[in-house]
Design brief:
Elements: H1 20-25, H2 34-43, H3 45-50, H4 55-61, H5 64-71, H6 74-91, E1 111-114, H7 130-145, E2 149-154, E3 162-165, E4 171-174, E5 186-187, E6 197-202, E7 205-216, E8 219-225, H8 233-236, H9 247-267, E9 274-278, H10 284-297, H11 301-310, E10 312-315, E11 326-327, H12 329-342, H13 347-352, E12 365-366, H14 367-374, E13 377-380, H15 383-393, E14 408-409, H16 416-419, H17 422-431, H18 435-438, H19 443-447, H20 454-483, H21 487-492, E15 502-507, H22 523-530, E16 537-542, H23 550-563, E17 572-575, H24 580-589, E18 592-595, H25 607-613, E19 617-621, H26 626-629, E20 635-638, H27 647-671, H28 680-693, H29 699-742, E21 747-754, E22 764-772, E23 781-789, E24 800-803, E25 805-811, E26 814-822, E27 829-837, E28 852-853
Parallel strand pairs: 1-2, 1-9, 2-8, 9-10, 10-13, 13-14, 15-16, 15-18, 16-17, 18-19, 19-20
Antiparallel strand pairs: 3-4, 5-7, 6-7, 7-8, 11-12, 21-22, 22-26, 23-24, 23-27, 25-26, 27-28
Helix pairs in contact: 2-6, 7-29, 9-10, 10-11, 11-29, 20-24, 24-25
Length: about 850
């Protein structure tokens, strides 16, 4: 291979009349604004498809004659001018939601969102699945509502793999290189024109990463890339693949994401007070924040931790232990021995930050636990996932009741403009009004869905189904030709699927817990459903298994072998190489969206939300978001939320439930037509689902909720602790140190109650508790009555804490506290006394892991 001695970049040559195209191409606003996208499609629709919807590559490949023709086409120039006005109006907009909020800083990007992947558009393959697509939708909504946010991640030379299947249906992977210079991204430069880079120390020396920027509407996203000549070849490969390589590759990437990503913000001149870790991959940034504060302000680690923690938010997405990143102690030693010395920590204390039991020397270091210990607030991504996460991680805070484990929940959503079809978008504009894009959380707007004439909604949906069928046929033909299938089989691809038949979509990662082959549990019964002459059903599958997940690959192979059976070969298609483009065709064209996870292993899921936006109806296990969204008028539930110990029995029960739903409810309702040929009962359910689900399950609501419940409180607390050279952070760290050394001597000596005879509803029970405080003071403690009704085993149900106050009675180091319990309901009740830390600058008191029970 010949190496160049000179490298240079060639930009497309645009006529002056088309110069606006260049700026529009480098801002991903076109990815969710159909009118901007339409300009590029009109310029050359074939090239738009050929470049995977990449306007930068398209402008570089388009023939100069076509550009010159467009530059003299009045109609095209008028469309371009309208798009440019729309673009500039968006970018310069005043009066966004956040600009109207007095608590939101408007002069600085105060929050940074760290994620290992961002799914923004298919031509920028920097994502693998739901986590990345959620992150991409999050940035888009942050842009729409005007939140001063910045994104941080890695830029992968090969990204996630491209999928194809061999003749046996077994998944194969290929890793084509991305040409960053033909993607809608730009390298960041210093004032002198040199590239902006950051350096991160690794065991063998520093590794340098260059910084790229993706403009996502009003939000910048900075991505780090180590594939530059100054690095060794092995170091250049660190950012090759998303979720590729072994444990060592993973820790190398996560060091670059957390430590390098935080330094990149400094390099581009940003100092956000709030850092949001989207999953534990970026948790090392919390340590880098501490190191920087220690270096700049002369703090101890404990003092720096208070300031850094106050401005750190963590979202966990993984409801199973195996899905979290664990690193062996010797691997942590290799990469962090010098680093923890800079933090002034012993090896035990450093590794303890990532262990459930900090004293267990053999326990691996967990990135999720590090994030839990270093964040001021933590949340799961659905109500059910919050409960699962509290149960999964409650041992991080021993002694804290399960319901008080400091993990809340904020349910995921979708960025509606990115996922709605152009046809449905136009329909919404006419009947909901254009404000539905800017304020998708307004239920009044969505109530207008019922004003859409049934005929218009159904014809719109039918057009999308027809386009999905055409797309599936074309993809199947290309897949068969690539496998070397005989011409007769390729020709049959034109006959698969029926544009008028009930169409079910299933698209997601082929992880085993998602049970993609649950429909195939009873193949003969499924065949009868698919081939019913009066009520035919067809299914389109898509999804990738992780390259090392052979059981997931086997599920794909099982589906491929089944779809080749002569009885069903026209009724089932597997679309290879699932990406955002395939996902859009699916969610915009299917009638039913199927989801079959093994409860409670689906953290949230968002694909069903996208399908609802486009008129599809969900049928799903009551897991993740569907456990919140489901009611009998919005879709169908597989089961009633049961959880099973026997997986084989669970599959038997739930597959039969699914078959029953298809045979007795779903297909009959779909094919029930009125005299005018419309399935009016089905359409009514479509409308009810859209009206109920769309106002809440969107990322505009999601980002506003994060801002209100986490970012702004974190900003206020961070500012409080860092004012006056971190005076209050230092004081809080000193107080915590005193608390830790004195807590063991704290005793609840006696608890007694003024128990009247025949306590009745309306009476008050007074409880006295004597505590030996040792070296502590009453101001250091929150003493509470923990009371509620008792269950059959004598345990307190739905406990309610009631503050107790010092009575003023003191004997040496013993203090009396008094509390009163009102009697609102009859029955058996009970109470105990507990003690928690209390300080004006303390965040969640449970995060200390200090709790004393009577």
């Amino acid at each position: 291979m010949t190496r160049p001695i000179l490298m240079y970049t060639i930009a497309p040559s645009l006529p002056p009349e088309l110069d606006h195209l260049r700026e529009m191409a480098y801002n991903l606003l076109w990815a969710w604004d159909h009118e901007l996208m339409e300009v590029f499609i009109r310029l050359d629709s074939d090239l738009w498809e050929e470049t995977r919807h990449n306007p930068v590559l398209m402008l570089g490949r388009i023939k100069q004659e076509r550009l010159d023709t467009a530059a003299h086409d009045d109609a095209f120039l008028a469309q371009l001018e309208h798009a440019w006005e729309r673009y500039t109006a968006y970018m310069e907009a005043h009066g966004t939601y956040c600009q109207k909020q007095p608590d939101v800083p408007h002069d600085v990007r105060f929050a940074a969102y760290f994620s290992a992947e961002f799914g923004l558009t298919e031509c920028l393959p920097n994502y693998s699945g739901g986590l990345g697509v959620l992150a991409g939708d999050y940035l888009k909504s942050a842009s729409d509502i005007g939140l001063p946010l910045v994104g941080v991640g890695l830029l992968y030379q090969q990204g996630y793999f491209r999928q194809y299947l061999n003749a046996d249906g077994w998944q194969q992977e290929r890793y084509p290189d991305n040409d960053f210079y033909t993607l809608p991204i730009r390298q960041e430069h210093n004032a002198d024109g040199t590239p902006i880079t950051v350096s991160v120390d690794y065991p063998w020396g520093p590794i340098v990463a260059q910084v790229w920027k993706v403009q996502v509407g009003r939000v910048p996203l900075y991505l780090l890339d180590t594939n530059i000549p100054i690095n060794r070849q092995a170091d250049q490969d660190i950012t090759d693949q998303l979720y590729g390589g072994d444990r060592e590759t993973r820790i190398q990437q996560e060091v670059m994401l957390g430590v390098g990503g935080y330094r990149a913000l400094r390099a581009v001149g940003l100092r956000p007070a709030v850092c949001h870790m989207n999953e534990g991959h970026a948790a090392f940034l919390s340590l880098e924040r501490c190191r920087e504060l220690m270096q700049e302000e002369g703090l101890t680690f404990a003092e720096a931790r208070e300031a850094a923690m106050a401005g750190t938010v963590f979202t966990t997405h993984t409801p199973v232990p195996a899905g979290n990143d664990y690193f062996a102690p010797d691997l942590m030693d290799k990469y962090f021995t010098e680093y923890y010395k800079r933090l002034g920590l012993s090896r035990k204390d450093f590794l303890g930050l990532g262990r459930q039991n900090p004293n267990n020397e053999s326990e691996d270091f967990c990135m999720t636990i590090l994030a839990l210990r270093m964040a001021a607030c933590t949340n799961g991504v659905s109500r059910l996932h919050g409960a699962v996460s509290r149960k999964m991680w409650q041992n991080v805070w021993p002694g804290v009741p399960l319901q008080d484990t400091p993990i809340t929940s904020i349910t995921n959503g979708i960025h509606a403009p990115s996922w709605v079809s152009r046809d449905m978008d136009s329909l919404f504009d006419r009947y909901l009004g254009p404000r539905w894009r800017d304020d998708p959380g307004d239920p009044v707007l969505w109530n207008r869905v019922h004003q859409i004439p049934d005929e218009e909604l159904w014809r719109t949906h039918e057009r999308r189904r027809e386009r999905l069928v055409a797309f599936a046929r074309n993809r199947l033909r290309a897949q068969l030709e690539a496998r070397g299938a005989p011409p007769s089989e390729v020709t049959l691809a034109e006959e698969v699927l029926n544009p008028e038949a009930l169409t079910i979509g299933f698209g997601r990662r082929f992880a085993t817990y998602k049970r993609s082959a649950l429909l195939l549990h009873d193949e003969e019964r499924l065949i009868r459903i698919l081939t019913n002459k009066d009520r035919p059903v067809q299914i389109i599958f898509a999804g990738k298994a992780h390259p090392r997940d052979n059981p997931g690959k086997e599920l794909i192979r099982q589906i491929i072998h089944f779809e080749r059976r002569p009885e069903v070969r026209h009724r089932m298609v597997f679309i290879e190489d699932y990406d955002m483009a395939v996902a859009r065709y699916l969610v915009q064209g299917v009638d039913v969206w199927l989801n079959t996870p093994r409860r409670p292993m689906e953290a949230s899921g968002t694909s069903g939300m996208k399908a609802t936006l486009n008129g599809a109806i969900n049928v799903s296990v009551l897991d993740g978001w569907w456990a919140e969204a489901y009611n009998i008028n919005t879709g169908w539930a597989i089961g009633s939320g049961e959880e099973y110990g026997n997986e084989a029995y669970q599959d038997e029960v739930e597959s039969n439930t699914l078959y029953d739903l298809l045979e007795k409810d779903i297909a009959p309702l779909f094919y029930l037509r009125s005299a005018d040929g419309l399935p009016r009962a089905w359409i009514n359910r479509m409308k009810t689902a859209m009206r109920t689900i769309c106002p809440f399950f969107n990322t505009n609501r999601l980002v506003c909720q994060y801002a209100k419940e986490t970012y702004l409180p974190a900003l206020a607390r961070h500012n409080t602790l860092t004012d006056n050279h971190l005076e209050r952070a230092r004081a809080l760290a000193a107080w915590k140190a005193r608390l830790q050394t004195s807590w063991a001597a704290l005793r609840i000596v006696e608890v007694k109650a003024d128990m009247p005879d025949g306590l009745k509803v309306g009476d008050t029970l007074t409880v006295h508790a004597w505590l030996d405080l040792g070296q502590l003071t009453p101001d250091d403690l929150a003493v509470e009555l923990y009371q509620g009704q008792l269950d059959a085993d004598g345990d307190i149900l739905w406990p309610k804490p009631i503050p107790m106050t010092p009575s003023g009675q003191v004997q040496d180091t013993r203090h009396e506290f008094v509390g009163e319990i009102p009697s609102h309901t009859s029955g058996r009740h009970g109470c105990t006394v507990r003690v928690l830390p209390r300080h004006a600058d303390l965040g969640d008191p449970y995060q200390q892991g200090l709790i004393l029970w009577a």
